[in-house]
């Protein structure tokens, strides 16, 4: 398989899809190297359910996953057994706490209104081409930073400043992707001699460690000057919750634990949502009838006298947008942000129209959102490891999508190449270049 992998390095996901089609849904990746294990690849929902739900305890992450994703440390994505259960229980509790929920709503709204809209207004006024993928990554980086640490780095601005943290994350994700392809001996050689992507990964880790240490230090200083109470009207960020009452949490919340937790949350929050939004706007640009339906749905929630004005949408309004929700789910089905779990396109699972962008497949006959089982729709993982931030992701995606579609016309630059990058996250290799024009004066 290694020669085939090398020949298809420029199109890894397309090649995997071809092999899955030819193999009938499952195949074994046989290693040519003595120390590398054979790997079973499957898209069969029955297998997915068995591995990730009904027999979950027999399929831990263990050594291989933790070694490939060592930059995540002992965080929730690498943890197993009791340690994983403790971290997940705590994260679930904090993410669903009323303090964090208040903070999520307020922070997301503020970042759309005071960060995203000013940038889009500037771009529309200038008539310039903008990379929407870059815009969405800056948006999700800022909002993730606010939600996780309480600090806003202000990366989403008309100056488009360099984002060292994001660059380090991109380098790390690319290097981790190639760890799935190159034999371990070659990777060890890169680490020993200090070259290639392993060198970039080492440098990226240094950057992340340094910047996360600064976050922790600033938060510790901030907490020494004020007291956090449950009644805080504005809500609190996750790092504050972890550091305020460590004895109550039941975990050893030292700097190593905090570092690993922050990096894991950043990976989950920054990359997946921005990837989904990028592919969503490309799909919508290719399917104008979908864009029209979303606009009509948005209009239905706006008083007649306000329909020709610029506006944002409240959390309650966003929760009622069924067709938009379906369009986002359809995007995640076709282009899941974590493509190593990509199985959603197969005809045997989704029918002969599986390659078509059809938000309607997510809407029931009664007009409600249709919920598919997670072992069929794996965008948010499945079983006990189902993504804890699913609700957070949909809140942010709907807020951004509704704000842009109602207030702007988005046109992807004609002839712009759209192809996936080689990364563990399904970014677009060349970004998504587009022009925006204001709908309302």
TrEMBL record:
Which species does the entry assign this protein to?
Salix viminalis
Matches recorded under InterPro entries: Cyt_P450, Cyt_P450_CS, Cyt_P450_E_grp-I, Cyt_P450_sf
- Note the CDD domains from the entry: CYP86A
Q: Does the keyword DNA-binding apply?
A: no
* Gene3D superfamilies assigned to the protein according to its UniProt record, in alphabetical order: Cytochrome P450
Q: Which UniProt keywords apply?
A: Heme, Iron, Metal-binding, Monooxygenase, Oxidoreductase
Q: Which GO terms describe its molecular function?
A: heme binding; iron ion binding; monooxygenase activity; oxidoreductase activity, acting on paired donors, with incorporation or reduction of molecular oxygen
* Protein family per UniProt: Belongs to the cytochrome P450 family.
Q: What's one Pfam family the UniProt record gives for this protein?
A: p450
* Cofactor dependency: heme
The entry's protein name is: Cytochrome P450
Q: What GO terms describe the biological role, i.e. biological process, of this protein?
A: lipid metabolic process
């Amino acid at each position: 398989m290694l020669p085939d992998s090398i020949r298809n390095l420029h199109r890894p996901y397309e090649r995997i899809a071809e092999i899955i089609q030819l193999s009938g849904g499952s195949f074994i990746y046989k290693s040519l190297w003595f120390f590398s294990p054979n790997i079973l690849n499957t898209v069969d929902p029955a297998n997915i359910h068995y591995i990730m739900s009904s027999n979950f305890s027999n399929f831990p992450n263990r050594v291989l996953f933790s070694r490939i994703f060592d930059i995540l440390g002992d965080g929730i994505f690498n943890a197993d057994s009791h340690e994983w259960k403790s971290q997940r229980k705590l994260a679930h509790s904090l993410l669903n706490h009323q303090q964090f929920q208040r903070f999520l709503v307020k922070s997301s709204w503020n970042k759309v209104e005071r960060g995203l809209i000013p940038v889009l207004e500037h771009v529309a006024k200038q008539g310039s081409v903008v990379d929407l993928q870059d815009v969405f990554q800056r948006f999700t980086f800022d909002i993730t930073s606010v939600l996780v640490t309480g600090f806003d780095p202000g990366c989403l601005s008309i100056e488009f400043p360099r984002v060292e943290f994001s660059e380090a994350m991109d380098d790390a994700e690319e290097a981790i992707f190639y760890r799935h392809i190159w034999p371990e001996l070659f990777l060890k050689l890169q680490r020993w001699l200090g070259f290639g992507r392993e060198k970039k990964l080492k440098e990226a880790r240094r950057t992340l460690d340094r910047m996360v240490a600064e976050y922790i230090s600033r938060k510790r200083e901030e907490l020494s000057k004020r007291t956090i109470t449950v009644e805080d009207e504005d809500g609190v960020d996750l790092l504050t919750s972890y550091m305020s009452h460590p004895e109550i949490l039941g975990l050893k919340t030292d700097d190593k634990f905090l570092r690993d937790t922050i990096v894991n949350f950043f990976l989950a929050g920054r990359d997946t949502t921005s990837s989904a939004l990028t592919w969503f706007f490309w799909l919508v640009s290719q399917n104008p009838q979908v864009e029209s339906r979303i606009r009509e749905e948005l209009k239905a929630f706006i008083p007649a006298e306000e329909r020709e004005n610029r506006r944002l949408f409240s959390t309650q309004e966003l929760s009622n947008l069924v067709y938009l929700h379906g369009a986002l789910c359809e995007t995640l089905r076709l282009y899941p942000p974590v493509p190593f779990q990509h199985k959603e396109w197969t005809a045997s699972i989704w029918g002969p129209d599986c390659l078509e962008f059809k938000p309607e497949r997510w809407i029931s006959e009664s007009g409600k959102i249709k919920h598919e089982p997670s072992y069929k729709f794996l965008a948010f993982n499945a079983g006990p490891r189902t993504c804890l931030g699913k609700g957070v992701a949909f809140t942010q995606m709907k807020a951004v999508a509704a704000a842009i579609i109602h207030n702007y016309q988005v046109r992807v630059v004609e002839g712009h190449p759209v192809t996936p990058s080689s990364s563990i996250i399904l970014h677009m290799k060349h970004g998504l270049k587009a022009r925006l024009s204001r709908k309302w004066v």
